[in-house]
Amino acid sequence: MDPSPLFYQAGPALPEVSHARGVYLWDEAGREYLDGCSGAISCNLGHGRPDIRDAMLAQLDRVAFTYRTQFENAPAVALAKALVGLTHDQLQKVFFVSSGSEAVESALKLARQYFVASGEPERRRFVSLRPSYHGSTLGALGVTGYQPLEAPFTDITIGSLKVAGPDFYRHADADDTLHVERILAETRAAMEAADPDTIAAFILEPVGGASTGARMLGQAYLERIRALCDEFGCLLILDEVLTGVGRTGTWFAYQHYGVTPDLLATAKGLGAGYYPVGAVLARADIVEAVMGSGGFQHGHTYAGNPLACATALAVVEAIQREGVLSNVAARGCELEAGLEALKARFAWVGDVRGLGLLWGVELVADSDTKAPFPAEQNRFARITALAKEEGLLIYPRRTLDGVAGDHFLVTPPLTIDAADT
Ligand code: PLP
């Protein structure tokens, strides 16, 4: 291959992709890869699906793009209704975007504008977890707790009050309940010190994604954060960019816990890799307050275009039609058992955690002390490279905030079959 004019992050030269079907991809050299991480946890229905292609082609034949201020379009309305239905009408309004970062950005701005419209303009700050990942645009990056991504931009982002979430693998408290209590006490103290009346929203991922290796927050913590938001009068934004649209076995991860957000951001699996599309789901009264004060001062050109919405609608319908959520539960149990067997066999597998088909594996130098591997050993990159050599794609990271550690995600397409191993 000639040197490519493209630039991303520093890293090894990549094989050129040829084609993909189901849970497999092939490169130009003819090598086969099992997509064990759904690309970037986005190709949730696998590759090359004729039903999604047909829906996209049918929409292309009608109209690919219309601008949202000029026309209503039927796929957008149908998709919005479907998404509201998936929340059992707990969130009643939908705002479309084209990516996860845009969804988070839009949720932050909607929260802020809601308080401006409601006569509480001093509520302009956000609380988020460290570590966390909420996206790469300046607003979403501002609430992200992942030091290397933040570092060049800390002076120019909105920033947020960063607090620790529970870490059930490494905590030193006598038991999990005490740990949650301690973390919550610290969070309350930090919010009180920051003046709760200046806080617009608390944003978090209900199950951690790439920045934490699927760290679980748990029922008790999420319930108490909901209660804290209510007590302090701020909104709860759930970032379900990665966990939404079936990844954890329910349509949205919050449904495992019965902790309903005020705003929810989703993307990745909504377009399932076929088209970029995301959404913010919101409580109706929040949207009504904003719309009643002159409208939401925000929007993106491609938001809610007919092709994006027809694609996402086909994705949602496929998940419903094919009972994909039951498959997630069944395959998730098998995946958990397989990863636990790995843990029993190899001392360097420290922790296995997750839900549905979102699993994280944390690597440690010593499973007794839980000491992480030294950063310079680049274990997360090495294990990913080894897996790729064996034809398996996984999603690696090193947590750099809190206790540093290498981990990878195993997040295959939600349609994976027991035979695909
Ligand atoms: N939020 C979470 C939890 C994510 O995992 C991601 C992407 O990895 C984003 C936001 C940003 O999404 P995008 O890359 O589509 O902008």
Automatic annotation (TrEMBL):
<keyword id="KW-0808">Transferase</keyword>
<comment type="similarity">
    <text>Belongs to the class-III pyridoxal-phosphate-dependent aminotransferase family.</text>
</comment>
<dbReference type="GO" id="GO:0004015">
    <property type="term" value="F:adenosylmethionine-8-amino-7-oxononanoate transaminase activity"/>
</dbReference>
<keyword id="KW-0032">Aminotransferase</keyword>
<keyword id="KW-0663">Pyridoxal phosphate</keyword>
<dbReference type="InterPro" id="IPR015421">
    <property type="entry name" value="PyrdxlP-dep_Trfase_major"/>
</dbReference>
<dbReference type="Pfam" id="PF00202">
    <property type="entry name" value="Aminotran_3"/>
</dbReference>
<dbReference type="InterPro" id="IPR049704">
    <property type="entry name" value="Aminotrans_3_PPA_site"/>
</dbReference>
<dbReference type="GO" id="GO:0030170">
    <property type="term" value="F:pyridoxal phosphate binding"/>
</dbReference>
<protein>
    <submittedName>
        <fullName>Adenosylmethionine-8-amino-7-oxononanoate aminotransferase</fullName>
        <ecNumber>2.6.1.62</ecNumber>
    </submittedName>
</protein>
<dbReference type="InterPro" id="IPR005814">
    <property type="entry name" value="Aminotrans_3"/>
</dbReference>
<dbReference type="InterPro" id="IPR015422">
    <property type="entry name" value="PyrdxlP-dep_Trfase_small"/>
</dbReference>
<dbReference type="InterPro" id="IPR015424">
    <property type="entry name" value="PyrdxlP-dep_Trfase"/>
</dbReference>
